[in-house]
Specification:
Blueprint lengths: L1 E6 L2 H20 L6 E6 L10 H7 L6 E2 L7 H19 L3 E5 L3 H12 L3 E5 L11 H12 L2 E4 L2 H9 L6 E3 L3 H16 L2 H5 L7 E4 L3 H4 L2 H16 L4 E4 L2 H10 L7 E3 L4 H9 L3 E4 L2 H10 L3 E3 L7 H5 L3 E3 L4 H10 L15 H16 L3
Parallel strand pairs: 1-2, 1-4, 2-3, 4-5, 5-6, 6-7, 8-9, 8-11, 9-10, 11-12, 12-13
Helix pairs in contact: 1-7, 1-16, 3-4, 4-5, 7-12, 10-15
Length: 368
Amino acid sequence: MKVVNIVGARPQFIKVSPILRAIERHNREDPDHRIQEILVHTGQHYDYEMSSIFFEELGLKEPEYHLGVGSGTHAYQTGEMLQRLEEVLLVEKPGVVLVYGDTNSTLAGALSAAKLHIMVAHVEAGLRSFNKGMPEEINRVVTDHVSDLLFCPTEAAMKNLEREGITRGVHLVGDVMYDSLLHNVQKAEKDSQTFERLRLVPNEYALATVHRAENTDNAERLRAIFEAFDRITQDGLPVVMPLHPRTRKQLESLGLSIGKVRLIDPVSYLDMLLLEKYAQVILTDSGGAQKEAYWLGVPCVTLRDETEWVELVTAGWNVLAGCERDRIVEATRRVRPNRGEALLYGDGSAAERVVRCVAEASVERGAM
């Protein structure tokens, strides 16, 4: 059986890594039903700090195809990816296409495969923010409704799909990002020199990330967020922020003051794991960082009005603060570790479950 993995943004590089390791294990254990894996990089993220360094650290092979789409509007990115992915799929003729998460690469991969009547498997299916103003929400919903196999990280995701009438091909597997974290956190402790390089003291800083369009493309929201960060710094807790290229561009375009916030260049995956692990608190609009905070035992303040990871809010681990300055400051002061259930997102074996389900579905369809 031939499987095409489609990735394009750094969270997807992290998610595909355990899947590729699981495919290798499957091929060793069941050589009569080998999976031939093709990796396609759309080029949605393309800077060294946002792409190449992740491949190096995660030990990912070079993609068989690099489409080089680059940045642009949602319509441009998705349209270019659709055209270029169709060409790849017509050449490779895979039995299954795996897509990940909620980016334009996810949507384009799912649509291009579905229109060619190729089985679509969505890793991280069923998540909903219920805010269709977010492009990620549109990508999630459409991808789920054209997918044949839907791999859910949580029970809540399963229920979301059931409410939308999607019950066939749905599997509760856990979160592949937890697989990746368990595999890489010890390596990060051993190899990363980030604290020496940045001259940071563990547990004496707040780590911030801001990259979602709902925050970066709204001047008032972005201003309020940075005012909150500056206030937190003045309260005595330094705020360190790896700066996403989109956020940097908006700050420069709007001429917003960053106050005393310490901005640093984007960091690698291993460096980010360490920065998260030893932060006093994480301030973020990233879904991945919300979960990593939970797994690493660090309280999290989410800079959004809603989250797909509702379990973390219910458990009291994650506080939704929106983009109001005073709410962010107050949430940072009062949030405390309260981990609760340790296995909200599985046991670290999600990738094996995904590969097993893909192999079984392919046998049923006669693709093996």
